[in-house]
Amino acid sequence: MQTKARVVLTDYVWESLDVEREILDGLADLVPLQVTDPAAFFPDAADCDALLNTYGGPITADVMARMPRCRIIARYGIGVDTIDLDAATEAGIIVTNNPTYCIEEVAEHTLAMMLSAARKITFYDRQVRSGGWAVPPGKPMYRIAGSTAGLIGFGNIARRVAMAAAALDMRVLYFDPFVEQGQFDAPGQKAELAEVLEQADYLCVHAPLTPQTRGMLNADALAQMKPTAVLINCSRGPIVDTAALIDALDAGEIAGCALDTTDPEPLPDDHTLRTRENVIINPHAAWYSEGAMEGLQRGAPSEVRRVLEGRWPVNVVNRAVKGRNRAGL
User: Fold this and answer.
1) Residue 111 to residues 40, 46, 272, Cα–Cα distance (Å)
2) More exposed terminus of the chain, fewer Cβ within 10 Å: N or C?
3) How many CB atoms lie within 10 A of CB 212?
4) 209-255: per-residue pLDDT in tens?
């Protein structure tokens, strides 16, 4: 007879599972997989009591129906776009995320990309490595002080970016329909999306990926930007319409972009964005630091332990599931 709970880990990008085993010790058996296709979760996940999840998905109603004992799906990261939240609520499955583990890292990476784009750091590095040594190829460059940082979304990460941007004497505008002016102690003026697009010298994407934000930076949106503006995306690739972005770069509608995340991800080896001098691309690395990694690994399994012990978890995404979930919480 099974005495311990069964926790299935769909996929992970770290070397050791010692943290997970320590947190779940004595309470659950950890079953680590290394798959992202939901069909490959099975048969291991069929009798799981909890599902730990990094990138695997989409986790749909059909997938959940094949896990009749699952009480919680715990995401390691912040975004939950790979999980059908309505279906989870309907099935009585609690969904949690980890909203605070890499705030500093992503904010720092956004600023690093902004500065790199503004000062042509990566461009000049490539020029020097290929034998060049001259300033003119990088012209024009503009002073960051006095420019405008436009933020799409004004959550925890965006507010950290706003503080850093203000310290650089930048003007901060933000668009977020869920935040009121003055709601948070952070610099920035709330504006409509059109105003942010039109006035931003550096447009920084910090919105979550939802049906409403998917493709929101499309051809029409990009056409509203300054021809000298730079788009910076450290959020989710599909928020930006990749084909429209390429067209905007070709047409000179924007000056360049810095992408930590792309659509698709990774980009194919022969993708045109890989070859452009006014494009910076990183491999979805903004979240990472040694400190963030520890916070990442501890967050999701700690939520699983709370549920398995009969406690309400800390970071519940589908709060409507309270009082109507399989865990009886």
Assistant:
1) 38, 44, 25
2) N
3) 10
4) 999 999 999 999 999 999 999 999 999 999 999 999 999 999 999 99
Structure tokens at 166: 């203000």
Give dist(CA 300, CA 233) in Å, integer.
25
Q: Are residues 219 and 132 in the same domain?
A: yes
Q: Cis link prior to 211 (omega < 30° from 0)? A: no
Instruction: Report the catalytic residues.
Output: 236, 265, 284
Cα 72 to Cα 54: distance, rounded to the nearest angstrom:
14
How many domains does the chain fold into? 2
Q: How far apart are CA 155 and CA 101, in angstroms?
A: 14
Which single residue is written with the structure tokens 């583990």? 101
Q: Could you tell me if 28 and 309 are in contact, meaning their C-beta atoms sit under 8 angstroms apart?
A: no
The whole-angstrom separation of Cα 233 and Cα 167 is 21
Is residue 96 a contact partner of residue 315, using CB atoms and an 8 Å limit?
Answer: yes
Residues of the chain falling short of pLDDT 70: 1-2
First to last CA, the chain: 25
Which structural domain, as residue segments, surrounds residue 65?
Answer: 5-101+290-321
Q: What is the predicted pLDDT for the residue at 310?
A: 97
Q: What is the pLDDT of residue 1?
A: 46
Are 91 and 114 in a shared domain? no
AA letter at 177: P
Q: Is residue 314 part of a domain?
A: yes
What CATH number is attached to the domain comprising 223? 3.40.50.720
CA distances from 256 to 90, 170, 245, 285 (A): 43, 19, 9, 20
Q: Are 197 and 249 in contact (CB under 8 A)?
A: no
Beta-bridged to residue 327, according to DSSP, are none
Q: Do 315 and 235 belong to one domain?
A: no
